[in-house]
């Protein structure tokens, strides 16, 4: 266990804190929990690279922490009727499909490249920005309809990155030699 992995675990532990604050309408504190989680995401990766402390655990935990944070963020916002349910279905379905594809490739010993793409990173950034802004605007009593352009952009990126990852997996799968 090193500092970057500890920060990633802290990010995971902040998820129930965020959900609790959202549940009780403490939007300012929920926003603070999200910002702290976002900071740990930026810091853990930078520290891992700078201190040469990249680990297999970190390679698994970091994207898992991101997915857990985003999924819980969208689900909590939908439960509170702050975002449309179809948005949660889109975001969560994309991640489940990608996770299942990765699991199938692992079980069948088909080598695939699971490194995040620029499109995937952009999607994550847009999704996190959207969640942060929804919580901020709810806290400040602002109209969430102001986020419609960001919502549309995020949906396009989510769909495009999902399709891109599927294409990449399909290409790797077809390029792999058949199993004996």
TrEMBL record:
Membrane association type: Multi-pass membrane protein
Cellular compartments per GO CC: membrane
InterPro entries: CDP-alcohol_PTase-I, CDP-OH_P_trans, CDP-OH_PTrfase_TM_dom, CDP_ALCOHOL_P_TRANSF_CS, Phosphatidylglycerol_P_synth
Keyword terms of this UniProt record: Lipid biosynthesis, Lipid metabolism, Membrane, Phospholipid biosynthesis, Phospholipid metabolism, Transferase, Transmembrane, Transmembrane helix
GO molecular-function term, one example from the UniProt record: CDP-diacylglycerol-glycerol-3-phosphate 3-phosphatidyltransferase activity
Top-level class of the enzyme under EC nomenclature: transferase
Reaction(s) this enzyme catalyzes, per UniProt: a CDP-1,2-diacyl-sn-glycerol + sn-glycerol 3-phosphate = a 1,2-diacyl-sn-glycero-3-phospho-(1'-sn-glycero-3'-phosphate) + CMP + H(+)
Transmembrane segments: 7-24, 30-47, 68-92, 118-137, 144-167
EC nos: 2.7.8.5
This protein's pathway: Phospholipid metabolism; phosphatidylglycerol biosynthesis; phosphatidylglycerol from CDP-diacylglycerol: step 1/2
One Pfam assignment: CDP-OH_P_transf
Subcellular location(s) per record: Membrane
GO biological process assignments: glycerophospholipid biosynthetic process
Family: Belongs to the CDP-alcohol phosphatidyltransferase class-I family.
Protein name, UniProt field: CDP-diacylglycerol--glycerol-3-phosphate 3-phosphatidyltransferase
Provenance organism: Nitrospira moscoviensis
Name of encoding gene: pgsA
């Amino acid at each position: 266990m090193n500092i970057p992995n500890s920060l990633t675990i802290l990010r995971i532990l902040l998820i129930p804190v965020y959900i609790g604050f959202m549940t009780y309408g403490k939007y300012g504190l929920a926003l603070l929990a999200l910002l702290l989680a976002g900071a740990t995401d930026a810091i853990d990766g930078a520290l891992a690279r700078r201190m040469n402390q990249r680990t297999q655990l970190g390679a698994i935990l970091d994207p898992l922490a991101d997915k857990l944070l985003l999924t819980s963020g969208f689900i909590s916002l939908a439960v509170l009727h702050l975002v449309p349910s179809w948005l949660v279905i889109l975001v969560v379905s994309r991640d489940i499909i990608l996770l299942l594809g990765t699991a199938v490739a692992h079980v069948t010993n088909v080598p695939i490249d699971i490194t995040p793409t620029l499109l995937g990173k952009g999607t994550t950034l847009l999704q996190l920005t959207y969640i942060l802004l929804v919580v901020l605007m709810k806290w400040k009593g602002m109209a969430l309809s102001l986020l419609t352009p960001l919502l549309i952009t995020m949906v396009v990126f989510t769909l495009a990155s999902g399709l891109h990852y599927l294409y990449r997996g399909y290409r790797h799968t077809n390029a792999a030699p058949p199993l004996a």
